[in-house]
Amino acid sequence: MKRSSRELKALARDTLANRYGSFIGTLIVYFLIVLGSNMLLTFAFPFRGTVISSIIAWLASFIITLIISVFSVGLIRFSLNMCRGEQYRLSDLFFGFRTHPDKIIIAQLILTLISEICSIPVTIMDFMSSSNTLTLDELSFRSLVILACSFLNFVVTLGLHLTMYLLCDYDNLSAVQALRESWHLMRGNKGRLFYLSLSFFGIFLLGFLSCGIGFLWALPYWEITFSYFYLDIIGEL
User: Is this model's pTM higher than 0.90 or not?
Assistant: First the structure.
């Protein structure tokens, strides 16, 4: 049974009732890890005046991104445990490091590579552009290419959305198998995912208007709702 966005969000609200504090605390720790990693990168590479220093800084930033992706799987684990009525705890954040972090990193590498491939036409146009002044036809063509690449990347991202959830749930899946399974499961469900994402627009707008404080409540709501979306897709609801 495919549940509507309203039903999934209602389930999320019921699950978070009297549990917001636990999720917010875990979320704060997660963001402190992300913030600390970025600050460490800034202090380690304060100046990027040369090509070599810029490349090293980019590589370090990319490595940190991969490490953070392992923590993000831990956040998914915490969310799924809460949805399933199982024991959830702060240590779930480190779940990805305890169970095949290599698969998570490989999956993130592939996802990043796919995103870069989708943007290749735009990169080529930037490289071939000989001047900063573009004619109307050139500007129109460039805009069409950017829109086409963005749309392609968007569709692919929707199709591979469940990859990390699957790696969190199934130890026997390889990174490539998780990507394939996500693409298979999302057939006929990409529109649902897109609509569900759009339904949070107003909530996140309030988060911005509250100087970010509202995100402490919006993000747990988002995470639990999308965990229920995953559980609905795999037939667990």
Answer: no
